[in-house]
Design goal:
The protein is of the alpha+beta class and 205 residues long. It has helices spanning 23-29, 103-120, 125-128, 181-192, 198-204, and strands spanning 4-10, 13-19, 43-47, 52-56, 62-66, 74-78, 87-98, 132-136, 139-147, 156-163, 168-176.
Length: 205
């Protein structure tokens, strides 16, 4: 999968982010289903050093770890061949990017990140709309869902920008067929709401 470089700017500085989804890969991933669709049942945890992320393993999602130049590693999971709806999920922890503590500043920061990502996918600021406050496990953050403006590659996309327990930035992105994001929500909940961090693991022990 290829790189889509884009810059994220806000009043609090700039973040260099690279989306790891290529147009061709998206097209291949969302090809027509040849057999009856299936949904996942089990989960398995993948160690990303600064966090553990659960991923559906029955059937197994095709996951990989992408590395960029001077960028945090990106966890990426692609739905199994006969899974419905077809989807791609990404997670990235910016361990050196501190997010604003004040709620309004955090909202503005998140909006800047999401608008920049949306623009990269052909989506206007107006289409991003008002952010929704969503807590995921130990993290709090803001989410927006929209349809990409890339013609034959149009997909529903959701972006979540949040604050990890050590006050650093966490980024989630998901892509699926237009109108199917609600169908994907169960797997997003299983994955995004169950992220674990070393600090919480020590507390549990």
């Amino acid at each position: 999968m290829g790189y889509f470089p884009y810059s994220v700017f806000s009043a609090y500085g700039s973040i260099r982010v690279k989306a790891l989804i290529s147009f061709v890969a998206l097209l291949c991933c969302f090809c027509a289903l040849a057999k009856p669709p299936v949904q996942s049942r089990g989960i398995d945890y993948i160690d990303m050093k600064s966090f553990l992320i659960p991923i559906d393993d029955d059937p197994l999602w095709n996951w990989s770890i992408k590395k960029g130049d001077s960028m945090p590693e990106v966890f990426e999971a692609v739905s199994p061949e006969y899974y419905y709806p077809k989807a791609i999920i990404q997670a990235q922890h910016f361990v050196e990017e501190t997010v604003p503590e004040h709620p309004m500043a955090f909202n503005a920061f998140s909006m800047g990140v999401i608008e920049s990502i949306a623009k990269n996918f052909g989506v206007s600021e107006q289409s991003v709309g008002k952010l929704v406050s969503v807590s995921l496990g130990e993290m709090e953050g803001f989410r927006s869902t929209f349809t990409t403006g890339l013609n034959e590659y149009r997909k529903d996309m959701t972006v979540w920008v949040g604050r990890s327990p050590d006050n650093t930035m966490f980024l989630f992105m998901a892509f699926t067929e237009p109108g199917k994001m609600a169908h994907l929500q169960p797997v997003l909940d299983r994955t995004w709401k169950n992220i674990r961090f070393p600090s919480s693991l020590k507390t549990d022990a």
